[in-house]
Amino acid sequence: MGPNTFAEVARSLEAQPVELRLDHRIGDGPDELPLDAIEQLFEAFAVTRTEHHAVFLIGIAGFSNSPPEQQAVQLSTLGFALNLAAEMARKQGVRLVMHRSTTGDGFYVWNTVKGMEADENLFIGLILFLVFHASLRRSTTAPEAVPPVRIAASVGSHYTYRQPSPDGMGGAEFIVGDVTISLARLVGAARPNQILIGDFFRVDDKTEEVLGLEDFLERVFERTAFLSTITMPGGSIEKVAAYLTGPRRPDGTHRIQRLKVVDKHGYEHQCCNLKINVYPANGETYFCGLQHEDLVKTAKPKTA
User: What would the pLDDT profile of 47-69 be if each residue is shown by its tens digit?
Assistant: First the structure.
């Protein structure tokens, strides 16, 4: 930001600029103070806007009907599955630092790394989480500890703010904005075990190519081939198939069905339904998400 822009911003905020003279010059030289160090110091007190960022929201179905001790166990189980997903992603060379903030009955989850590849990586982490969670539900002897969930994921804009701890040794990061509002509306309209993906566009930071939802997910799915090499709590996996659902055509293929959620304020949120099939090396296939026929058979009001 140049001096003219800085002065203009100060006037718009009705703020009085204060000049801080440092003992060292800012730069990359041997005796200079790196710009990253300045950013790290001030980011705890700044609100920043991100135009394109992947976020997903997990909501526990029936959470309010569970006793408090069971709620604590369920949230702990979700956190465990998220940690497993993040660790597995890192072992596969996927740069993913999943940050999360609680919503009471679940979590908002985002990658602290930003950019097109980072957003793809978060969706890879989401798929890993869903597979881990489904595997835990399938193999657990305490089903009440691994609850059914509602999932919504999308890419959109948000603001980031941080809350430093009183001792200055740590702090928490939070996000709020268009993408979090849309995800809350989608999760509110989702059925237990359903996975809704917002119908978004993502601009590639490097090539400026504009990708729609289907093109974006195709890139994500191509990068999840390693799933056939991992082992779940219930055993090893032979193959994982992920796809957006829709009605079947006469030739046996299907078209992707766009869904619409209208919130209480009358705003529309477009989305698609995601299904994931997990084929174990030994045992029966298990599923994440609902198939198109499930949505048709049991209609639900399109409001949240």
Answer: 889 999 999 999 999 999 999 99
pTM: 0.86
CB 94 within 8 A of CB 117: no
> CA-CA distance, 211 to 121, in Å (whole number)?
16
pLDDT in tens, 139-155: 888 888 999 999 999 99
| Residue 203 main-chain phi, psi, to 5 deg | -90, 125
3-state SS string for 11-67: HHCCCCCCCCCCCCCECCCCCCECHHHHHHHHHHHCCEEEEEEEEEEEEECCHHHCC
Rounded Cα–Cα distance for residues 174 and 176 (Å):
7
